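Technical note accompanying the year-one report. For the benefit of new consortium partners, we illustrate the data format agreed upon in the data management plan: each record pairs a sequence with a structure-token string. No post-processing was applied to the example shown here.
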Amino acid sequence: MTLADPVAILNGAPGALDPALVLLAALALDALIGDPRWLWAALPHPVVLIGKPIDWLEKKLNRAERGRLDRTIRGAVVVGVVVGVWAAIGWGLHLFFASFPYGMAAEAALVAVMLAGRSLYDHVGRVAKALKTGGAEAGREAVRHIVGRDPDQLDRHGVARSAIESLAENFADGLVAPAFWYLLLGLPGLFAYKAINTLDSMLGYKSPRLKAFGLTAARLDDAANYIPARLSGLLIGIGAAFAPGAAAGRALNWMVKESPKHASPNAGWPEAAMAGAYDFALGGPRRYPGGVSEAAWIGSGRARLEARDIRRAQRLYVIACALGWIAVAGVALAGWG
């Protein structure tokens, strides 16, 4: 098969659902269209479908009168069931798509739905716009949609830092990680990862109620993001060489030296790379629904960030995304070779 066989590709010939080719198409769709809100007004988003049974199971199985070990085991069972079911659904859908004409396009559209590249860029851009035009109050309202922490106590500099931190961290788990697991394991890997990520976002808090029950979800999410987080930091660090005013050497240096300061074993890698690229200080103490986290500062640069700094981070984010697309294209070309 050659690159001149588009009809054979779309009609299910061997290699028609090659993950690298499908991923390239999905990345393009995500970049062009982003999050189709009109679709989710009529249909439930896949993440919502993943989240509803998790919420139901947590209420049924995570009762306060049960002991810590019992709750930990029950939480592990929930993780195993949810991840297994969604991996099986992914496998079934892959077989279905591979069996009919234009299945590659259908699978690419589904993969694009699971990527958050464009929507992340748009959401962070809204924070920059709100901060510039409406000040700290408008910025807090805008940043509320993309962070897990309580933004009510943030000044405008805190809002800007939160937006940049979310841009870096969600680059890893909203774009690079789903792409990585799809490239490695196809739809089963992608669906399993989204289930793991949703489990962690719902159960992985250190609050008294969830600390034991959500332990497996949190640890599995750490494992699933281990490689993608480091790839994300590397893409940001290399991308800094092509971004005006950024320093690639410092980004890569801080990525290695500053990332261990983060409470997460993964989130510090892209955040430290972003901080180093522009000599920012990110992180610091932050308030979450479960309480206050006395987090360390990532980087030793300027902490009083503004809306214009969010825009600079967005430019670097686009370059890092482009480098990721080039890497996937290289994998696709290697497959054709």
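Partners are asked to follow this layout when depositing records. The first strand starts at residue 282 and ends at 283.
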